[in-house]
Amino acid sequence: MGMSVGGGQGGPVSEPNIVPLIDVLLVLIIIFMVITPKTPTGLDALVPQPPPPNQKQQPDDNKTIVVQVAPNGKLKINQDDTTWEQLGPKLTDIFKQRADKVAFVKGDDNVEFGEVARAIDIMRGSEIEHVGLITAKIEAGQ
Question: pTM here?
Answer without folding.
Answer: 0.55
